[in-house]
Design brief:
Elements: H1 3-18, H2 34-51, H3 57-70, H4 73-80, E1 92-96, H5 106-114, E2 118-122, H6 130-141, E3 149-151, E4 161-165, H7 168-177, E5 183-186, E6 190-194, H8 201-212, E7 222-228, H9 234-240, H10 250-265, E8 271-272, E9 277-280, E10 290-296, H11 299-308, E11 313-317, H12 345-351
Parallel strand pairs: 1-2, 1-4, 2-3, 4-5, 6-7, 6-11, 7-10, 9-10
Antiparallel strand pairs: 8-9
Helix pairs in contact: 1-3, 1-6, 2-6, 8-9
Length: 352
């Protein structure tokens, strides 16, 4: 199987996924193997939502829309053009996946297979319904993928390299357990936004997408703001108010009530609007339904701070502040070449 065959297979997978990525699921006539897979994947979406209360239909479809947009011939070709994948010596790559948002481990799965390796997947119990079904579809559109995709719930054995994602605690375990193997090990990161006080209402509404999508559970979600001294939060609260139905989701509401009670009993100063709280705090990782903020006096000093803390930060959202900034509203729309933790997965896979 050459690189073009692998690309073509994932393009067909993107076409299949596209049927489920809009508000109304719509079956298309020209998608291969729809008779076998369409109704089955609809059922998997239902199971994923029932199994994990954070995986709402809206958020699952949002994730699927991102992947259907990414898995095009143009995107895949552009992504892989800089690499020499013709001389890759196939190995078995173990991938340990997180489960905080739907299909969060798909990029690693894609990277291993598209580069010519075999993949051994250990999924999170929180996100176990979608990927195995998509992997089976992939095997049908390109039979040479059969035997190259394996899922396990057991202890990982017999692999050549590993890509593992988890919390700070599990990352330390991974580093010990996988020592001696080529590895990419990722831990907790959070994303931040830098405001200057001149943002338009549209900018702030777009920022609300970076804050609330996936209930704020992703490493690309903004969990911390840096704002100038004397910043007034009125415009921000107005811009985010259209997200107020989020509090109707039981798991979110429980976290909001709990964290609000903790802050009130601890007599912390905070601002809240009935479904969301903002609190001045130096930490990057804020609890669900909470956004931390910190004041800054000097833009250059803030740039130095963000540079020094780079290992804790996934994305920086701003407008004209940093050369590698993310535009408001775009943190959850990464391109294939936007690597987690800035570690080039394909380069790693070509060098092992």
């Amino acid at each position: 199987m050459n690189i073009q065959q692998r690309i073509n297979a994932f393009v067909k997978l993107g076409d299949f996924i596209s049927q489920f990525s809009n508000e109304a699921i719509q079956k298309k006539d020209n998608v291969e193997h729809n008779v076998l897979f369409f109704d089955g994947f609809k059922h998997q979406l239902k199971l994923a939502e029932e199994h994990n209360g954070w995986f709402t239909e809206e958020n699952i479809k949002f994730a699927l829309k991102g992947w259907s947009d990414s898995l095009t011939l143009e995107n895949l070709t552009t992504w892989l053009q800089p690499y020499n994948l013709d001389t890759v010596n196939p190995k078995k790559i173990a991938v340990v996946m997180a489960g905080n948002i739907p299909l969060v481990g798909f990029h690693d799965f894609l990277s291993v297979l598209i580069s010519g390796h075999r993949v051994l997947v250990k999924q999170s119990s929180n996100d176990k319904h979608l990927l195995p079904f998509l992997a089976k579809y992939l095997e049908y559109v390109e039979k040479d993928f059969k035997g190259k995709i394996e899922f396990t719930e057991e202890k990982l054995t017999d692999f050549d390299a590993v890509i593992a994602t988890g919390s700070n605690n599990t990352a330390r375990y991974f580093e010990y357990y996988f020592k001696g193997k080529p590895s990419i090990i990722r831990n907790n990161r959070n994303s931040v936004a830098v405001l200057n006080g001149n943002e338009s209402p549209e900018d702030l509404q777009n920022l609300s997408e970076d804050i609330f999508r996936y209930f704020g559970l992703g490493c690309r979600n903004v969990s911390k703001l840096f704002v100038p001294k004397n910043y007034k939060f009125d415009a921000l609260f107005e811009a985010i108010y259209h997200w107020h139905p989020i509090v109707e989701k039981a798991k979110y509401a429980n976290n909001y009530d709990y964290n609000k009670a903790v802050y009130l009993m601890s007599e912390f100063d905070m601002l809240e609007n009935g479904f969301f709280m903002i609190k001045e705090d130096a930490s990057y990782a804020s609890p669900i339904a909470t956004l931390f903020y910190e004041y800054y006096d000097d833009a250059e000093q803030l740039k130095q701070k963000l540079k020094a803390d780079a290992r804790q930060i996934q994305c920086v959202v701003s407008n004209g502040f940093l050369s590698n900034e993310i535009a408001f509203g775009n943190t959850q729309k990464p391109q294939l070449w936007d690597y987690a933790d800035d570690v080039d997965t394909i380069a790693f896979l070509t060098e092992i």
